[in-house]
Specification:
Layout lengths: L3 H12 L5 H10 L5 H8 L4 H12 L4 E9 L3 E8 L4 E8 L5 H15 L9 E7 L11 E7 L3 E3 H10 L2 H6 L2 H20 L2 E2 L8 E4 L4 E3 L6 E2 L23 E3 L14 E3 L6 H4 L8 H17 L9 H10 L14 H10 L11 H59 L6 H36 L22 H18 L5
Antiparallel strand pairs: 1-2, 2-3, 3-5, 4-5, 6-8, 7-10, 8-9, 11-12
Helix pairs in contact: 1-4, 2-3, 8-10, 8-13, 10-12, 12-13, 13-14, 13-15, 14-15
């Protein structure tokens, strides 16, 4: 079914006689999922200048000049827009037509709650109210709107999809450490919202925007709730429908006409990232720790590029979520460190009491992990440098053997020519040769000791043992790379064998 934005755009283009009905039909039939505006431009039926004129005709010419649709959800659709007063690009979210009164109230609540959240990791709200776009026929339809920051970039779901596809630029930019740093920013935004008594209830990769210049912003607070405020009604029947469980937001409430399944209360959220209590419709139990579960599900997706729970149908998925059938990330990607396994599984615990109790605590655990990685890399680098220094000392030890043998020959030759009764002046060359031989032997002893000491320090480096700051949620320590350990041991053993003759 064509989107409302496409229908408005198509009607405006026809009224301005920029396109014919046949061109409109062909564009809508060629790619049903694509935006009509872009299809008409791509086909040559519409120029960019004409498209802007159609936008103004379809969406009015007030303060906000509305452009093409950026996305849509359960409560509204988000359009690219231009703020003619402040001369800046913005995003405007318009409430969907014919929404039930309770869902319109959600839209108003989204504006009120998100307007209170001023944080670098939460999308800022600029304006809220009603606008009256003209349909071109003189009819005026007032719509609730929410004006927000326009983020140039992509959402986290798209970023992860690009990584899966092997996009070279994305892989070069977003290492695991970079993704974990982004996740920390999400945690901080959620922690701030929680400090203001607001929970999101629909945290997922698609609701996190990643800007082109490093911005990380949590968006779509349409299901947000203020803790302590009047909650949704409980009891009733909720529909179980099939949808894309990783992206679509599910809003199923009491009184829904369905015989599929009876649930307690209302189910809201996205199934793949929904905590068990939310999946069961026990909304009175949904609190800050419910968002922690969703954060854990996002972390799972960052580590594995897949959701923590998968099923063939929505009904099966909700059943698995309710029972806490979560697998460890390492069962999907074997290379995931046990520390991250432990952090992720704790966040995804079935019981709220077993999860991290605050988003800040989860953030700090990730920080400990990242600091551990840096410390391990520093210690491994230090161990490798010691091994290399030991090899240089050992190479010098081997060189000195030849120099000592040559100097011993010089001492023997001069000693055979000098008699005991000869004056000191004539014995001086022999004494100098003997002094040089003693210096070479002492230098060889020092080279042997230097090589041995550095190899011992490399093999016994703290990098081969657990760091002093252990993860609170995982007890596995770091280990020096096997190549560095093996190289250190081999060089150390060579030095020890050579040490037996270093004074000869």
């Amino acid at each position: 079914m064509p989107r409302e934005a496409d229908l408005e755009f198509g009607l405006a283009a026809l009224r301005q006689k920029f396109v014919t009905p046949e061109q409109l039909d062909r564009a809508m039939a060629s790619s049903p999922g694509a935006m009509l505006r872009e299809q008409l431009i791509a086909s040559g039926a519409l120029t960019e200048e004409q498209a802007r004129a159609v936008d103004e005709r379809a969406h009015g010419s007030g303060r906000y000049r509305l452009g093409p649709e950026l996305g849509h959800g359960a409560l509204g659709r988000v359009l690219q827009a231009f703020d003619s007063s402040l001369k800046r690009d913005v995003a405007v979210k318009l409430v969907l037509d014919d929404l039930p009164a309770d869902l319109r109230e959600r839209f108003v609540r989204e504006a009120e709650l998100s307007g209170r959240l001023e944080h670098p990791n939460i999308v800022p709200v600029y304006d809220f109210g009603e606008m009256a776009p003209s349909t071109g026929s003189g009819q005026i339809r007032k719509k609730l709107f929410l004006c927000m920051k326009r983020v140039q970039g992509r959402d986290l779901a798209k970023l992860l999809a690009d990584l899966v596809k092997g996009d070279a630029a994305t892989r070069e930019t977003y290492s695991r450490a970079r993704l974990l740093a982004l996740f920390q920013s999400i945690c901080l935004g959620v922690a701030f919202a929680h400090s203001r008594g607001i929970i999101h209830r629909d945290l997922k990769p698609a609701n996190v925007m990643i800007g082109e210049y490093g911005e990380t912003l949590i968006v779509d607070w349409g299901l947000a709730k203020e803790l302590g405020a009047a909650g949704e009604a409980a009891g009733g029947t909720a529909a179980v429908i099939e949808l894309d469980t990783t992206a679509a937001t599910l809003v199923m409430g009491p009184g829904t006409d369905s015989s599929s399944r009876t649930l307690e209360g209302e189910i809201v959220g996205t199934p793949d990232y929904m905590p068990p209590e939310q999946a069961a419709g026990r909304l009175s139990e949904v609190d800050r720790r419910s968002d922690i579960y969703s954060l854990g599900a996002i972390l799972f997706a960052i580590l594995t590029f897949r959701p923590p729970i998968e099923a063939r149908s929505l009904k099966d998925l909700l059943g698995k979520v309710r029972s806490g059938a979560v697998r460890p990330p390492s069962s999907v990607v074997a290379a995931i460190p046990p520390e991250l396994d432990a952090i992720c599984l704790k966040a995804l615990a079935l019981r709220r009491e077993d999860r991290f109790q605050t988003a800040t605590e989860l953030h700090d655990e990730i920080q400990l992990f990242l600091e551990g990685v840096k410390e391990r890399e520093r210690r491994q680098r230090e161990a490798r440098e010691r091994v290399e220094a030991g090899r240089r000392w050992f190479a010098r030890y081997r060189e000195l053997r030849g120099e000592i043998e040559a100097q011993e020959k010089v001492v023997r030759e001069r000693g055979g020519k000098i008699m005991p009764h000869q004056p000191p002046e004539e014995k001086r060359p022999l004494w100098d040769a003997e002094a040089r031989l003693r210096a070479l032997r002492e230098e060889r002893i020092g080279a042997c000791a230097g090589a041995t000491l550095r190899h011992v320090l490399a093999v016994k480096s703290p990098a081969s043992r657990s760091p002093s700051r252990r993860m609170k949620s995982g007890k596995s320590g770091w280990s020096l790379g096997p190549d560095a350990i093996s190289a250190g041991r081999r060089s150390w053993m060579s030095s020890c064998r050579a040490a037996r003759g270093c004074v000869s």
